[in-house]
Amino acid sequence: MSNEIQLISDGDGIAVIGEPLAVESFLQSEGLSSQELTLQRFKPTLFAAAGAAQAGSEIAANSARWVKLTKESAQLATKFPLVKNSATGLKTGVLRGDKGQFVKILEFSKGPGAVLTNPAMLAGAAGLMAQLAMQQAMDEITDYLAVIDEKVDDLLRAQKDAVLADMIGVDFMVEEAMTVRKQVGRVSDVTWSKVQGTLVTVARTQAFALRQLDAVAEKLENKAKIGDVAKTSKDAESTVPEWLAVLARCFKLQDALAVLELDRVLDAAPDELDQHRLGLRAARQNRLELIARSTGHLIDRMDAAAGTAKTKVLLHPATSRAVVDSSNLVAIGVVGFQGALGIERTRELVEARRWVDAATDVRDKMLETGAEGVGAARGMGNETIGRARSATDKLSIKIAAGALRRRENEDERA
Fold first, then answer.
1. What is the reported pLDDT for 117?
2. Which domain of life is it from (predicted)?
3. Distance CA 140, CA 48 (A)
């Protein structure tokens, strides 16, 4: 039994390749979960590069597992620094194990396992790793959609816009293609022809959904009255999650199409697989950045609306709290959506300001203004008391009125 395992990292995950028992021992020793990496898929690609017999025997004798890059698995890069391959951009290396303990070897071995590290194999493995990473992302989006899909289905049924209707059709076709791929093990000309032109439709739907989110942010930005801000914020509670779910579906479809596309390139132009993989990765990152900017701007506008509402709590206590609550609900949904897509962002909940606290602050400021501020304070107090009566906040009335009486008595004594 060989005690060597080979590691390949593409920045999204790590492939662990070697004799099955050695691979299992390594993963257990590091406490890592993994998925199968099907090397058999690349046997035809290696026939010309390494010879059919040698390629077939090496692939059959080795196991390959894929580990998603997480905080835990990323520690492998520190523990076992891999060497970057200048031709592929991948980080690679070999570990030698003994009784469950593995140490670093900087170069790939030149022995029988070398076929697994030739350029064709590295490109193929990297392509499959990219597919697994995208399928993992698709699963996470599916989990996210399971929570809010009922609302999205209602939205899609109610919509007359052709853009969303076309996306539903694309969803059916892509799901069918993925099912056939899983059954057959590859993407045939017939399967690819059914979905080849659908990416444009998905991109149109994505742009449409982003415009809807931008419109919500613009409405919040343009509203000056607290009542208008409250209405827009309340509307956002229902509309924003719906459009986020449409975006999530679009992103899932784009990943699925990329998985199918890599399979097609592997069959039609294997020499271009690695560059195509890198191109798809760059395009995916661009989409993520576009979505991150749009949703981030929306959160900023919701936070700004909440901040404005907190300054008006004295005159509009109920409305102010409603705006803050809406802002938090929308932001929670956006952050959850961003997490499902792998966009890292944290946000602390905005705390609604209590009317009593605001009244106390105003009282303290009044006491500091001196005689010149008495008239202004009296006017503010009268208006505040009127507002508070309408909200039946008797405790707050007593605080505000008491503050004014004490201030006036001090003036008379002076």
1. 58
2. Bacteria
3. 38
Q: What is the pLDDT of residue 307?
A: 75
> Could you identify the residue written with the tokens 């990329």?
258
DSSP for residue 80: S
Asked if pLDDT for residue 371 goes beyond 50, the answer is no
Give per-residue pLDDT as tens, 118-156: 666 777 788 888 999 999 999 999 988 887 766 666 666
Q: Mean pLDDT across the stretch 61-86?
A: 79
Let me know: does 334 contact 240? Beta carbons within 8 Å. Answer: yes
**pLDDT score for 409:** 54
DSSP assignment letter at 259: H
Tell me how far apart the alpha carbons of residues 337 and 343 are, in angstroms, rounded to a whole number. Answer: 8
Cβ 143 vs Cβ 260: under 8 Å: no
Is there a contact between 155 and 209 (Cβ–Cβ < 8 Å)? no
Cα 154 to the center of its chain, rounded Å:
23
SS3 of 62, please?
Answer: coil
C-alpha count within 13 angstroms, C-beta hemisphere, residue 352: 19
> Is 123 exposed, middle or buried, given 0-12, 13-18 or 19+ CB atoms closer than 10 A?
buried
Residue 12: both structure tokens together: 């999204």
Buried b (16+ CB within 10 A) or exposed e, 60-70: eebbbbbbbbe
Structure confidence by residue, pLDDT tens digits, 251-294: 999 999 999 999 999 888 888 888 899 999 999 999 999 999 99
Report the C-alpha gap between 97 and 335 in whole angstroms: 42
**Token pair for 174:** 């892509």
Q: Check whether 331 has a pLDDT greater than 90.
A: no
Burial of 93 (0-12, 13-18, 19+ CB in 10 A): buried
Name the phi and psi angles at 67, rounded to 5: -115, 120
7 phi and psi, to 5 degrees? -115, 135
Residue 110, judged by CB atoms within 10 A of its CB (0-12, 13-18, 19+), counts as exposed
Tell me how far apart the alpha carbons of residues 338 and 318 are, in angstroms, rounded to a whole number.
30
Q: From start to end of 2-111, where are the E strands? A: 4-9, 13-18, 35-36, 63-68, 83-84, 91-98, 101-105
What pLDDT, on the 0 to 100 scale, is given for residue 99? 58
Q: Which regions of 184-273 does DSSP assign to beta strands (E)?
A: none
